């Protein structure tokens, strides 16, 4: 198996206080100058999280989302990601607030260039975004083929040893990604700063889905790379004594990392998905392959939110039942139930990348610069439109403690 350098602190428990004691983990009161209706709503939440799904080249959409959130001064206390979402999460948490968008832009600028041949000719034309759909579809196919043949600068490149008939566990070498992460991410800030980071990967030997959390251990480049090591393209990544593949093999949506367990405070979650579970019936084989990926990697986000909503409704019922038991009759079991049924409320704001006419089955590995700019612009527009619905960010009432909003469903 290919091995990645291992952090000395990969499996050590951190000495810093639990996340509940980290700044920004309690309800915020915005400064008077920033008390817009949106900021007044945000101040009611003890934690604001950003959840980033995996999706390869589509991850530029998440960059546009974060730019809009940053411009609107939306604080982020916890960012959770899988695969490309883990990389974007590291870029956010591993930079000071004023440099996060810059770091995201630099990453996507670097990896949207092939390492061998010059850029495709149409990449030089400013109006290429507006060319007819048929031409853009052809360009997308070419850029996808180039990624397969050449790799992407600062990300991955083909293994030349494959041509010699040697045995390897992946088609590509991802060592360039480690150098990029070392250059663009301050891992000391990521581990000790105010933003909690959670990324997920799958243990190759056990098949277990494991979460690497900066509140519990020091994270290094290998944890981020492990979360995005999708086989057979990318090799397993060594963390400690174990090897890991992409967390999307088990679940491509890290929502449970943020909302699982018993609630400790009111939480607002921005859930950013790159695959749409709903779509049209395919009309040809290319559309079949694209639709297959949508279904495979969407990870049933709506099913997860429905499950969590039922759990919170049950907590509300438990609280109502406890009220009917005289307080002097409460025993240890009642106290335990009260702790599990605390009046903490969740608000999930969902944003999903919507396929563009030129998107094909190679959309997750088509890293052309023009495609990246389209993805980024789509995220920026969707987030701005979402933030304009200020009422969506109001704290849910106690009788309905779990609410979800979706721009394309509710807007």
Overall description:
The chain is α/β, with parallel strands linked by helices and 411 residues long. The protein contains 14 helices and eleven strands. It has helices at residues 37-42, 60-71, 84-93, 100-111, 133-150, 175-184, 187-192, 221-227, 255-259, 285-298, 301-323, 332-340, 369-387, 407-410; strands spanning 47-52, 78-81, 157-158, 172-173, 196-203, 209-213, 237-239, 242-246, 267-273, 346-352, 402-406. The strands form two sheets. Strands 1, 2, 5, 6, 7, 8, 9, 10 and 11 form a nine-stranded mixed beta sheet that branches. The chain has a two-stranded antiparallel ribbon with strand order 3-4. The longest helix has 23 residues, at 301-323. The radius of gyration is 22 Å and the shape is globular.
Largest sheet: 9 strands, mixed
C-alpha geometry:
globular
**Can you count the beta strands?**
11
If helices are DSSP runs of H or I spanning 4 or more residues, what is the number of helices? 14
Average pLDDT level: 86
The proportion of residues forming helix, as a percent range, comes to 25-40%
Tell me the span between the first and last alpha carbons. 48 Å
* Low-pLDDT sequence parts: 1-33
Q: Give the ordered list of helices and strands.
A: HEHEHHHEEHHEEHEEHEHHHEHEH
Quick gist of this model?
With 411 residues, this protein is of the alpha/beta class.
Main traits of this protein?
411 residues; alpha/beta; 9-stranded mixed sheet; two-stranded antiparallel ribbon; 11 strands; globular
């Amino acid at each position: 198996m290919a091995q990645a350098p291992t952090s000395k602190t990969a499996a050590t428990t951190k000495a810093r206080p639990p996340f509940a004691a980290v700044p920004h983990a309690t309800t915020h009161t915005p400064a008077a100058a920033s008390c817009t209706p949106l900021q007044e709503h945000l101040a009611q939440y003890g934690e604001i999280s950003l959840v980033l799904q995996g999706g390869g080249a589509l991850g530029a959409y998440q960059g546009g989302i974060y730019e809009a959130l940053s411009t609107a001064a939306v604080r982020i206390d916890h960012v959770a990601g899988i695969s490309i979402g883990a990389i974007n999460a590291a870029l956010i948490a591993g930079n000071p607030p004023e440099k996060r968008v810059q770091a995201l832009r630099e990453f996507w600028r670097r990896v949207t260039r092939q390492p061998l041949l010059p850029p495709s000719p149409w990449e030089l034309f400013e109006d290429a975004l507006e060319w007819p759909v048929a031409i853009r579809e052809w360009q997308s196919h070419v850029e996808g083929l180039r990624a397969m043949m050449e790799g992407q600068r600062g990300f991955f490149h083909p293994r030349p040893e494959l041509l010699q008939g040697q045995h390897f566990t992946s088609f590509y070498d991802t060592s360039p990604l480690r150098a990029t992460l070392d250059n663009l991410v301050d891992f000391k800030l990521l581990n000790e700063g105010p933003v909690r980071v959670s990324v997920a990967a799958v243990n190759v030997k056990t098949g277990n889905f494991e979460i690497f959390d900066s509140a519990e251990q020091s994270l290094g480049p290998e944890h981020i790379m492990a979360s995005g090591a999708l086989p057979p393209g990318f090799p397993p990544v060594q963390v400690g004594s174990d090897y890991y593949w992409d967390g999307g093999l088990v679940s491509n949506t890290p929502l449970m990392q943020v909302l699982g367990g018993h609630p400790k405070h009111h939480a607002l979650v921005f859930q950013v998905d790159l695959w749409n579970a709903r779509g049209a019936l395919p009309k040809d084989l290319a559309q079949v392959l694209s639709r297959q990926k949508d279904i495979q990697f969407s990870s049933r986000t709506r099913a997860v939110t429905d499950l969590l909503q039922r759990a919170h409704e049950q907590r509300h019922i438990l609280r109502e039942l406890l009220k009917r038991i005289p307080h002097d009759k409460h025993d240890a079991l009642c106290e335990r139930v009260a702790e599990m049924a605390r009046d903490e409320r969740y608000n999930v704001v969902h944003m999903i990348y919507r396929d563009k006419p030129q998107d094909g089955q190679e959309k997750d590995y088509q890293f052309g610069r023009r495609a990246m700019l389209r993805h980024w612009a789509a995220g920026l527009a969707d987030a701005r439109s979402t933030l304009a619905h200020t009422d969506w960010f109001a704290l849910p009432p106690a009788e309905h403690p779990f609410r979800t909003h979706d721009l394309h469903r509710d807007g």
